[in-house]
Specification:
The complex is a heterodimer of chains A (about 250) and B (about 425). Chain A is an alpha/beta fold. Chain A is built from eight helices and ten strands. In chain A, the strands form two sheets. Chain A has a five-stranded mixed beta sheet with strand order 3-2-1-4-5. In chain A, strands 8-7-6-9-10 form a five-stranded mixed beta sheet. In chain A, helix 2 crosses helix 8 and helix 3 runs antiparallel to helix 6. The radius of gyration of chain A is 19 Å and the shape is globular. The chains are: A alpha/beta (about 250), B alpha/beta (about 425). Chain B: GO terms for molecular function: hydro-lyase activity.
């Protein structure tokens, strides 16, 4: 019998994350770029190079570009996928997913979504906010966090990304330390994410997923605002793709 | 189709801007409505009305005006149609439901006013809606802060009467509401030159009850599985009822209901049996706001009921027809209208009871509480709604949106995730 692969493709606004589960596990990430359709094609090519063919796979796509993956057997929202991924280890948990354009808080009970909340159109409190501010500080996102770890947060009060950027320019012009500005940026995001997350019950292990989930400083900053321990989800940024792969297996059963 | 430009010109409309609106509506309507499969034949009437939405009914209203009848533009379910109809006046709903009118409203209103108010003010001041031009008198009401101030702006441009709404539902508040209805009756009598008598008021009560009963019959058909009609189509029928002739509205709704009842007997539906059933609750959806219905019904679920002003509040609860004297009739009217549970009242537990009752009656799998941006009242109430529904074991999703389509995909993700959550 041929090996069946269960594949999850998380087509996010910034990055595409792929998890394939077969006789071994394969995962990779690539920038989404400007065309989800092209990216979906590149993913297929990459899978084929690894000997993974759609005809002996079950594929679930997720993320904002989930409909662009024409060869997927099913499209499922990232909310359900993140929950399915994390619930493998933690059937009762709260997931905080800080994505490139959306931030979500998902409350999971007995391995199913019980409640969720997503940010509005506004990018404050999302990965996009961090990205814009890192650009402003002239560094990468990871550097911004290592700078922040050494700083004392300056106050950033604006709820709007554009206004917050102006505030940061103000701090820069006053000669405030980069470390302190970086810490202020991280705290500002943590506060906004907390305001959102508190609209669902935050109980059980609180797991961080998405593109910032590999940063312990961010988890700690969030935990400080939420007043609980926030840990990186086992699958980190691959949580959605992994959950999609889990669902691919479920669908085929 | 008849060219209406002459009529619109006589109404003092901005023809160029209005043509832009007329150009987009058919595409939107085609994509959202005509693309549906297996629609009831009875929807043909409503499709026809929409195809000439700024033509057919406005032309009728102008004819009636020539005969000396007065047209009253209203914005709220609390304004009793019966009084206007009894005085031989005609009611036309004036709520704006399109983003098209919002920028004209924003010229005079602050940004953080709800899109319904912005669109309504914009439709009048931008001179891009014939109904807003035709109405001889506007009837406002003090349901929220945004509206209260909007009347002051609109009142500079058109005769306007305001009904002072109670904020609570104590006995003394209902008495006060009777007083408001009495005063409204005098205003309408003076304006139309027709006295409201016990006889003509009785006839009006009977007529508008007839409309409620006919529409409620259509709503009741949605309790079936499979569902014989889409939520979109029922919403359209309801939206059109606000400006149609009440007798014709009742006749068309009864004809549609008969067809739906036959469909139920034959087991015919527009969605597969077992499709997830959604009850919508929240702020009104004025024509042509079909946004949430379209997202939900193209995400694998069906809207089976709307607990809102463009829903059950318009069709439920009859006015008691037994009183034959004016005092009793006014009391009956006040009693009926105070049964509507709008978030402008405090407390407003009745709305939560309604949502739970309707969710059960319509076998809803989940409730979506959707509010227009900047509606503080409904936005604040969503907490109570969520808590009560959770306690009742009914899944609920709270959403906030406006008339703009730019958040459609983000809304779709939430709606799809909610439907996935329903299993």
């Amino acid at each position: 019998m041929k090996q069946i692969w269960y594949i999850g493709i998380d087509m996010g606004s910034t990055a595409a994350k792929i998890v394939a589960v077969g006789d071994h596990e394969l995962r990779f990430v690539m920038p989404t770029g400007w065309s989800c359709l092209d990216t979906a094609g590149q993913i297929l090519k990459k899978l084929k190079n690894q000997g993974i063919l759609p005809e002996n796979s079950r594929i679930v796509s997720t993320g904002y570009g989930r409909q662009a993956v024409s060869y997927a057997d099913k499209a499922v929202t990232e909310i359900t996928c993140h929950a399915a991924g994390c619930a493998q280890q933690y059937p009762d948990c709260t997931i905080i997913d800080v994505g490139g354009q959306d931030t979500k808080a998902i409350h999971v009970c007995s391995a199913v979504v019980d409640d969720f909340i997503m940010n509005d159109k506004c990018s404050a409190g999302t990965g996009k906010f961090i990205e814009i501010m890192a650009n402003r500080l002239g560094c990468t996102i990871d550097t911004l966090f290592s700078l922040a770890a050494k700083g004392r947060p300056v106050n950033i009060s604006s709820l709007c990304t554009v206004f917050a950027e102006s505030e940061i320019i103000g701090h820069i012009s006053k000669g405030k330390a980069r470390e302190n500005i970086a810490a202020g940026i991280v705290r500002s995001v943590a506060i906004k994410v907390t305001q959102l997350a508190q609209q669902v019950p935050v109980t059980g292990p609180v797991l961080l997923t998405g593109g910032l989930s590999h940063l312990p400083y961010f988890a700690a900053a969030l935990g400080k605002e939420l007043q609980c321990v926030v840990r990186s989800a086992p699958q980190g940024r691959y949580a959605g793709a992994y959950g999609a792969a889990v669902l691919a297996k479920k669908v085929s059963q | 189709m008849t060219d209406r430009h002459e009529m619109w010109k006589e109404l003092g409309m901005d023809l160029e801007a209005h043509d832009t609106l007329c150009a987009v509506l058919p595409t939107a309507f085609g994509d959202i409505f005509l693309s549906q499969e297996n629609r009831p034949e009875g929807m043909a009437f409503y499709d026809m009305v929409v195809s000439d939405i700024h033509g057919i009914r406005p032309a009728e209203l102008i004819e009636e005006q020539k005969r000396g009848r007065k047209i009253f533009g209203t914005f709220c379910l609390y304004v009793p149609d019966e009084i206007i109809v009894a005085a031989d006046g005609i009611v036309t709903g004036l709520c704006g439901g399109s983003q098209f009118w919002v920028p004209d409203g924003e010229k005079v209103l602050p940004k953080n006013v709800c899109p319904l108010i912005k669109a309504s003010v914009g439709a009048r001041l931008g001179r891009t809606c014939p109904f807003f031009r035709i109405a001889d008198m506007y009837v406002g009401e003090t349901t929220c802060d945004g509206k209260k101030k909007a009347w002051e702006i609109l009142g500079e441009d058109v005769p306007l009467h305001i009904m002072d709404m109670p904020q609570m539902k104590r006995v003394k508040d209902i008495e006060k509401w009777i007083g408001e209805i009495k005063e409204f009756k005098q205003v309408v009598e003076t304006f139309t030159g027709h006295e409201v008598t016990a006889e003509n008021l009785h006839a009006a009560i009977v007529l508008l009850n007839k409309r409620r009963k006919a529409m409620a019959r259509v709503y009741a058909c949605r309790k079936a599985d499979p569902i014989p009609i889409s939520g979109k189509d029922v919403l359209l029928m309801t939206q059109i009822a606000f400006f149609d002739d009440p007798q014709r509205c009742a006749d068309q709704a009864n004809a549609l209901a008969e067809e739906l009842e036959r469909r139920i007997d034959a087991g015919i539906g527009v969605f597969p049996k077992g499709t997830k059933r959604i009850l919508l609750t929240g702020t009104p959806m004025a024509i042509p706001n079909w946004k949430m219905h379209h997202i939900i019904e193209t995400s694998g679920a069906a809207v089976v009921c709307e607990e809102c002003c463009t829903g059950t509040r318009y069709v439920e609860h009859l006015v008691d027809e037994r009183p034959m004297m004016m005092e009793g009739q006014l009391q009956a009217l006040a009693d009926r209208y105070m049964k509507n549970n709008c978030a402008c009242f405090t407390p407003n537990k009745g709305r939560i009871d309604d949502i739970i009752r309707l969710a059960e009656a319509y076998h809803a799998d989940g409730v979506i509480d959707v509010n227009l941006k900047f509606c503080t009242l409904y936005d604040t109430e969503k907490r109570d709604v969520k808590r009560a529904l959770k306690a009742a074991g009914i899944p609920v999703l709270s959403l906030e949106t406006d008339y703009d389509d730019t958040d459609a995909e983000q809304l779709r993700t939430r709606v799809e995730a909610f439907i996935e959550m329903l299993g």
